[in-house]
Amino acid sequence: MDTDSSDWLTQVEFAKRFGEHVRGRPYNRHTLIYWIRRKEGPPHVKVGRDVVYSWSAALAWLKEQSNRSTQPKPPRSLRRAA
User: Fold this and answer.
1) Alpha-carbon distances, residue 36 vs 6, 23, 45, 81 (angstroms)
2) Which of 27, 29, 60, 71 is most buried, most CB within 10 Å of its CB?
3) Which pTM does this prediction carry?
4) What percent of the chain is helix, strand and coil (3-state, nearest 5)?
């Protein structure tokens, strides 16, 4: 991943910027912590005790999520039984 230092954001900065971009208002930092614990959400990197996010990687992840959600699901008869 080719990123410069201005691409990296702290959790607080990222929560504000990503929330504004996605839904028009900031996310709470605790939402990001919840996503990390569930192994969901945009990619992040731990630097010591801090978590940082790459803005370009987050936008790529978001695009991948939107592509995934627009793919049609197979008919119920073809889905595996849970």
Assistant:
1) 23, 20, 11, 29
2) 27
3) 0.72
4) 50, 15, 35
Determine the pLDDT at residue 67. Answer: 79
pLDDT digits (tens, 9 = 90+) for 15-71: 999 999 999 999 999 999 999 999 999 999 999 999 999 999 999 999 998 877 666
Beta strands in 5-81 (DSSP E): 8-10, 45-47, 50-54
- Number of domain units in the chain: 1
78 found inside a domain: no
The residue to which tokens 């930092």 are assigned: 29
Token pair, residue 9, equals 């954001």
Residue 74 confidence (pLDDT) above 70:
no
Distance CA 21, CA 35 (A): 17
Determine the structural domain holding residue 32 and report its residue range.
7-67
